[in-house]
């Protein structure tokens, strides 16, 4: 199974278009704000911020987009047990603490059984997000987990840009077959 993951990096939409020119993906996994802005079908909306899912889901609805099919957060998050918490489809252990992008990879591999995953808008660089045009300066604190996860993800994940592309390589049609 092949999945494309869309994150908050500024070039996400161009990268998604490029990735979709390589193959037809079986699943689309949106991270955080990307789920509110992506007009197509979101199979899995993954976040380390379940307290924001209600706001993002409302934005998605206001944008006239169909609801996501599934909402996923990490186990042991403090929001899930609260009254009026946004309903989650399921939770997954968070073993590689390296951003919502790496958590989406973990969900795709461990829960969904994906064999090929392409990251769009997950550069893991101190560059702007598409939704606020503000540099993500906190990235340094999340990068350290990616090399730790590398042995587990190196054969299954490629990236369209940034440090993740440098670490994992770029996708190709041949790799996606």
Number of strands: 7
The number of domains: 1
With strands numbered from the N-terminus, the spatial order across the biggest sheet is 5-4-3-2-1-6-7
In what range is the share of β-strand residues? 15-25%
Q: What spatial form do the alpha-carbon principal axes imply?
A: globular
Largest sheet: 7 strands, parallel
Number of helices: 8
Mean pLDDT: 93
**Rg measurement, Å:** 15 Å
Task: Walk me through the topology.
Layout: E1 2-6, H1 12-20, E2 27-31, H2 34-37, E3 44-46, H3 53-62, E4 70-74, E5 90-92, H4 99-111, E6 116-120, H5 140-143, H6 145-153, E7 157-159, H7 162-168, H8 173-176
Parallel strand pairs: 1-2, 1-6, 2-3, 3-4, 4-5, 6-7
Helix pairs in contact: 4-6
Verbal overview:
- With 177 residues, this protein is an alpha/beta fold.
- It has one domain.
- The protein contains 8 helices and 7 strands; from the N terminus they run E-H-E-H-E-H-E-E-H-E-H-H-E-H-H.
- The protein has helices at 12-20, 34-37, 53-62, 99-111, 140-143, 145-153, 162-168, 173-176; strands spanning 2-6, 27-31, 44-46, 70-74, 90-92, 116-120, 157-159.
- The chain has a 7-stranded parallel beta sheet with strand order 5-4-3-2-1-6-7.
- Strand 1, helix 1 and strand 2 form a beta-alpha-beta unit.
- Helix 4 (99-111) packs parallel to helix 6 (145-153).
């Amino acid at each position: 199974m092949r999945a494309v993951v869309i994150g908050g990096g500024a070039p996400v939409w161009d990268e998604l278009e490029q990735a979709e020119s390589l193959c037809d993906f079986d699943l689309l996994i949106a991270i955080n704000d990307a789920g509110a802005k992506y007009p197509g079908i979101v199979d899995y909306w993954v976040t380390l911020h379940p307290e924001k899912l209600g706001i993002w889901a409302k934005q998605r609805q206001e944008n006239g987009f169909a609801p996501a099919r599934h909402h996923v957060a990490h186990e042991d998050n403090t929001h899930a047990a609260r009254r009026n918490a946004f309903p989650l489809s399921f939770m997954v252990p968070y073993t590689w603490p390296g951003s919502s992008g790496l958590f989406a990879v973990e969900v795709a591999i461990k829960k969904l059984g994906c064999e090929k995953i392409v990251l769009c808008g997950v550069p893991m660089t101190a560059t702007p997000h598409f939704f606020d045009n503000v540099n993500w300066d906190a990235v340094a604190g999340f990068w350290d987990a990616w090399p730790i996860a590398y042995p587990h993800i190196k054969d299954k994940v490629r990236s369209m840009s940034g440090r993740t592309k440098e670490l994992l390589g770029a996708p190709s049609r041949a790799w996606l077959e």
